[in-house]
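URGENT: need a sanity check before tomorrow's submission.

F., can you look over the TadE-like domain-containing protein record below? I want to be sure the sequence and structure line up before it goes out.
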Amino acid sequence: MTRIPARLVDLVRRFARARSGVAAIEFAFVLPVMLLLFIGLSQTTVALSMDRKVTLLSRTTADLVGRMGSTTIAEINGIMEAASVVLEPYDDAEVSIVLSSVVVRDSNPDPDSTSLEARVCWSRANANGTARSPNQTVPIPAGFDQDGASFVFAEVRMPYRPLFSLDNLFTTINLWDDTAWPVRSGGQVQLSGVAPC
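Structure tokens as predicted:
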């Protein structure tokens, strides 16, 4: 039979006789708070990192399309498929990407006044997104409020599901970023098979 060392037995006896368990009680009160802080901060860090990746993806796709004077559907699809590289190490299975070429035009025939409208020339989306309709109006971003301005409008959406969530609270947080990016060539990005605006 194995003997328990006398020192360990003595330690257990002293613990059982002790009446001043203040440290143990304080630890019992503090432990749940510390665990909540740890879990909350770690999940917040992941959410912020994913949000940064969504912003980076929106700007990267808009920049890649904005560098082209003309493009094809295959090239646009290739840019959207490259999302997995930008989003690493996160899963891109549910990410929604919509890329649109937008031109700003003066819709008022009166030469003395202007009424600018930004209209979609063409739009493409990945499997999780919905492309915008041709001629659909979009808000004019700052810096593009002049007749003939052209920009690429990238819209990225991605759900974030925390590891721990309360009943119907923080079950899914939708991360998103919209980027209006200038066309480098100065004109609009032409998509093969689509008439220019």
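My own read: The chain has one domain: 22-191. The two ends are 91 Å apart (CA to CA). If you see anything odd, call me.
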